[in-house]
Amino acid sequence: MYKYACLNPIADVGLNLFSEDYEKTDDIKGADCCLVRSAAMHDMELGDQVLAVARAGAGVNNIPLDKCAEEGIVVFNTPGANANGVKELVFAGMLYAARDLVGGIEWVSENASDENIAKTAEKQKKNYAGTEIQGKKLGVIGLGAIGVLVANAAIHMGMEVYGYDPYISVNAAWSLNRQVKHVTDVNEIYRECDFITIHVPLLDSTRGMINETAIGQMKENAIILNFARDLLVDEEAVVAALEKGAIRKYVSDFPNPATAGKKGCIVTPHLGASTEESEDNCAIMAVRELRDYLENGNIVHSVNYPDNSMGGCNTAGRIGILHKNVKGLIGAFTTLLGNEGINVSDMSDKAKGDYAYAIIDVDSPVSGEVAEKIRGIDGVVRVRIVK
Fold it and tell me: Which of 65, 193, 297, 339 is the most exposed place for a label (fewest CB within 10 A)?
């Protein structure tokens, strides 16, 4: 019997995928795994029993990844599960900014008592007419699940699309419309594009990447869209540029004092991945990831350990070993198992940064005593007898 905890409300369509071998608990220290959305976990004590954390969403800045890795807790996220919801909001933001729909709607509300509002509107509408997006240049910074969807949809909307991602994955490259112009220098996007949308994770290397220098290269009619993380943009520099008329609009999904109510800023209350469909998709993927790890020892979509999957186990036993990425450990594992009279029928070891993960299928069951001996090898973080 496995126990799981939910640190935030998780869609039932996902939780219903847990079998009768799973039981929900409110005590995270007594859980084998937990699901989370936005709850802050950095100061949370998880306890020794927790094996995995699944973030029902893409961003994981609320989870202490390094601490979890050190304690042998695998952290998953759900890349792409909410991508369509964010993509649709990006285009809503683009249209709101280009056509000044917000200004027009506010004018109608303010003049609701005017009995001749229809006639008055004909005189006022030129103030909110704006421009079309067809034929304009869109720069997409980051070609992950969301960025690719935005880029491809923009092509179909008649836009000229520039894409920048020095780390684009093979799958993303295959999915990207061939009409997207792949640029190798992000400054080309800053200089050339009418709309600039950012879709990269928040890292030390990306924090504040759209800064005063970047903004200084942009066109006066440029519109910046940020549906990724507010800290990717130096928002004080953006507000200053808007006040000077150096850029046209800033659209963000992250309300804060720097931008809320400021001239030229259109800010929504973090709605990107809040659709019912996105929450359902994230919950489903998160539960499937946890079950695959707990039941089969497979890691898919981890952010602090390498992905490593060997499917279902068809042998007498399987063990999973989370360990440091140092030389000689694989030989140490197989030697110890051989000395215990246990034959290795198949194995896979993958590394990611400072950590690695080995899955070993064996022809006879592995006892708790043998697992403890493996755990005693220097560099081993955690050992699980999966089967």
Answer: 339
